[in-house]
């Protein structure tokens, strides 16, 4: 009878302690998330300055890519100190064209990935607001434009074309995992 009672007491103690152990195990560190790389890509054989943003990446140290032919080094200021969240990215001439993953290493671990596109066309980066026709960003035909948009904004771009010329405009937001649902309207010089 005494052994039977002891077994019940041991089982009761185990059941009473189990929830507290389970709650102690549920504490975790926040996961670093890489949300943007600006620009979101570059031309094969080029070098570009990339600015990153995200959550829990304040102490981001190393920016890495899924292909070793894409390398990144911290951008240094005039005093020789690294600039926060800025990197100089070099794409080797033999790097394959396509979408590669970018990740950042922090003290909390490696971040989630973001798409980084490597292509063969020249790339332009938006550097100032282009919300009116007067401030429209000029683009070359057969080029890629890396830009950011504010919510519900209208950005204007201008390019030269001749009568009868076939021009294809591809807003590749879905292919690079962008949240932008783009509407593209093309007009001639008179609107």
Distance between the termini: 96 Å
The radius of gyration over CA amounts to 26 Å
User: Architecture of the largest domain in CATH?
Assistant: Sandwich
CATH topology of the largest domain: Immunoglobulin-like
Low-confidence parts, pLDDT < 50 over ≥5 residues? none
Q: Given the structure, what is the number of helices?
A: 1
The biggest sheet, with number of strands, parallel, antiparallel or mixed sense and barrel status, is:
5 strands, mixed
> How many β strands by DSSP?
13
Residues in helix, %: 10-25%
Beta-strand residue fraction: 35-45%
As for the number of domains, it is: 2
- The CATH class designation of the largest domain is Mainly Beta
Q: CATH H level of the largest domain: which superfamily?
A: Immunoglobulins
Order of helices and strands: HEEEEEEEEEEEEE
Report the structural category. mainly beta
Give average pLDDT, whole number.
86
Description:
There is one protein chain. The chain is mainly β. The protein has one helix spanning 2-25; strands at 33-38, 41-43, 47-55, 62-65, 70-76, 82-91, 98-106, 109-110, 114-119, 122-125, 137-138, 143-146, 157-158. The chain has two domains: 33-120, Immunoglobulins (Immunoglobulin-like, Sandwich); 121-191, no CATH class. Helices cover 13% and strands 36% of the residues. Strands 2, 4, 7, 8 and 9 form a five-stranded mixed beta sheet that branches. It is elongated and about 100 Å long.
């Amino acid at each position: 009878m005494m052994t039977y009672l002891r077994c019940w007491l041991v089982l009761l103690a185990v059941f009473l302690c189990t929830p507290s152990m389970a709650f102690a195990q549920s504490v975790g560190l926040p996961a670093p998330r890489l949300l943007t790389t600006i620009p979101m890509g570059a031309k094969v054989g080029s070098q570009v300055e990339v600015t990153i943003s995200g959550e829990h990446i304040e102490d981001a140290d190393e920016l890495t890519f899924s292909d070793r032919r894409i390398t990144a080094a911290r951008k240094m200021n005039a005093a020789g100190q690294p600039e926060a969240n800025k990197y100089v990215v070099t794409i080797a001439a033999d790097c394959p064209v396509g979408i590669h993953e970018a990740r950042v290493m922090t003290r909390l671990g490696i971040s989630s990935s973001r798409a980084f596109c490597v292509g063969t066309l020249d790339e332009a980066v938006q550097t100032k607001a282009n919300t009116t026709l007067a401030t429209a960003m000029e683009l070359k035909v057969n080029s890629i434009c890396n830009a950011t948009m504010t919510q519900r904004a209208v950005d204007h771009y201008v390019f030269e074309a001749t009568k009868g010329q076939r021009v294809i405009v591809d807003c590749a937001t879905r292919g690079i995992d962008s949240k932008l649902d783009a509407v593209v309207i093309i007009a001639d010089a008179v609107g």
